[in-house]
Amino acid sequence: MTKNRISPHFRPPPLSLHHVILLGQSRSVLTEYRPLEGLKAEIQTRSILQHAWAEIEHDLGYKSVVEVPQQIRRRFARIASLLELADEEFDGIKTELDSYRAEIPEAIRDNPEDVSLDLDSLQALIAVNPIIERIDNAIITITGAGARGSTGNVQTYLKRIEQLDMTTISEVTEALEKEEKLIIAFAKDWSKEKYPFLPAGISLFYLWLILFSLKEESTVIEEFEKVSFDEPSSKLAKELIIIAERIRRKLNKGNLN
């Protein structure tokens, strides 16, 4: 039976880039650096996966592939290939993410219905959307907050909005437009404390509070138990439900101030 054998001359992909450096002329003439003039140093840079390969080799006690038993070399080669492929994929993912993040603002402006709701798209929406900025500023005025701060906890905003079964950026902006008056009225009725500032995107949290409060009371209470509030979750949930329903009735009657 013929066995597949890896060449004894096989070498794994380079484990690191080696940079040889020395002081430049402008620095080496300085008194404190003169003793180091002409000396060279080496800096090695490698990816996390390349480092993992080096650690594996080190732990097994081999400094080169030729030291590895012949029957094991093929498995070493497979590991090296997988790590190299993973490195390339991670590089590709990072490049694609950078490109995606750069293109999101324009996509949100031109085709929001085609932009899926995710952490990056929501963060971009908060940064560029005039509706969010307008409602944020209205809430800031109502609550007496000093200013609109940097973007808040986008992960939390995303989690809350997903509970409203929204999946695209256009669904979020449409809900904000539709519920703008309700959000502002809710802020007037519910906000009791003054803050030095409120984070950008706070209108998304208020949108969630309102729309989620209109769900079944048991569902609201159950969810609020997972959120850290100063007041007992059941009491706060019932209060929010009452406020949301009262404001909704006023809005439907056209007498919302």
SSE arrangement:
Layout: E1 17-22, H1 25-28, E2 40-45, H2 48-60, H3 70-110, H4 119-128, H5 130-143, E3 148-151, H6 154-162, H7 169-190, E4 198-200, H8 202-213, H9 217-224, H10 233-253
Parallel strand pairs: 3-4
Antiparallel strand pairs: 1-2
Helix pairs in contact: 3-4, 5-7, 7-8, 7-10, 8-10, 9-10
Question: Can you describe what's shown?
Answer:
The protein has 257 residues and is mainly alpha-helical. It has a domain at 116-253. The chain is 60% helix and 7% strand. The chain contains ten helices and four strands, in the order E-H-E-H-H-H-H-E-H-H-E-H-H-H. It has helices at 25-28, 48-60, 70-110, 119-128, 130-143, 154-162, 169-190, 202-213, 217-224, 233-253, and strands at 17-22, 40-45, 148-151, 198-200. The strands form two sheets. A two-stranded antiparallel sheet has the order 1-2. Helix 3 runs parallel beside helix 4 and helix 9 packs across helix 10. The longest helix has 41 residues, at 70-110. The radius of gyration is 29 Å and the shape is elongated. The N and C termini lie far apart (88 Å).
